[in-house]
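Progress narrative, Year 2. Work on Iron chelate uptake ABC transporter family permease subunit from Actinomadura rudentiformis advanced from sequence curation to structure prediction during this period.
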Amino acid sequence: MSSPRDRPSSRPCPKAPQVTLSKVPPPTGAPAPADPPPKGSSRYAARSAGLLGALLALLAVLALSLAVGAKPLSLNEVWQGLVDSGSPGYTVVHEMRLPRTLLGLLVGAALGLSGAVMQSATRNPLGDPGLLGINAGAAAAVVSAISFLGLSSFLGYVWFAFAGAAAVSVAVYAIGGGRTATPTRLALAGAALNAALFSYVNAVMLLDTAALDRMRFWTVGSLATAHPGTVERVLPFVVAGLVLSLVLARPLNAVAMGDDSARALGADPARTRAAAIVAVTLLCGAATAACGPIVFVGLMVPHLVRALTGPDLRWMLPYCALLSPALMLGADVIGRVIARPSEVQVGVVTVVLGGPFFLYFVRRRRTVAS
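Result:
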């Protein structure tokens, strides 16, 4: 038998004292260790740096647009032409290249913003300013004015084209269901009106040779007919559409997640889509009226920007407002130099650049889907 001394004690073992480790202060004069920057702040810094880079790229393309042409100018000559009325390049810069550059700046920003707004409002990644029939409405109004009213002034095209674009936008919204419109209904209504109006345009142009001759240059899309009066007429519409698009950035972010989610977040999908159509009409109608239907700019740039910023329109729209005119003016500069002494219209260059991108995008989506 074991003695009581050999038996295990039934009393509980005392708990080990808990030691609290306190932060040891750094030595006097030594810098405190810095906390790692939050993830959101680094992303904000990267996007801000990218926005600054886009601005610098736009400024570089603006300088090229003023310097490159049938008569090349150095940057010093361009500057003298801008500020000194007695310089040899003053007439070339002020009367020819400055209006063309400003119009390209406005039209490019308008097309890029309208494409981004349309893709978000319709939730269609292939959304383009021609999706809702706006280009077709503007073209139908212009060819009607030329054929039936004998309109021959380019500055007169602006008002008819803008009125046609606005009328078609209202018709698309009404046919698509009004306040109950859905992205699918809007896209179908726009496609139907687009086909009908372009059929009408082709019929009028085939029956009226004078209308064909006057419309041929406009329908290709060009900045060569830029005039200070054209810039002044389209500027208010582009500015109004720009402001409205920026205001709609947050509601469109909510609508992009679906109608139920948008309502849960406090946004009205019907009102947001109606306002988006108004913004697209102001932007794309003014751009189409000024230089004709130019395609692929509103499709390419939002997708390129989305790869950099993500789907947040609060960042996408400023990027599109800078990179779209850079692409537009860059295509215009390419068109001036590849066929000297004549030039290739900017609408042709954007098609050549945008066609391969469109095929790549469709093929990429098919690969992802499979």
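The mean pLDDT is 80. The chain is about 70% helix and 0% strand.
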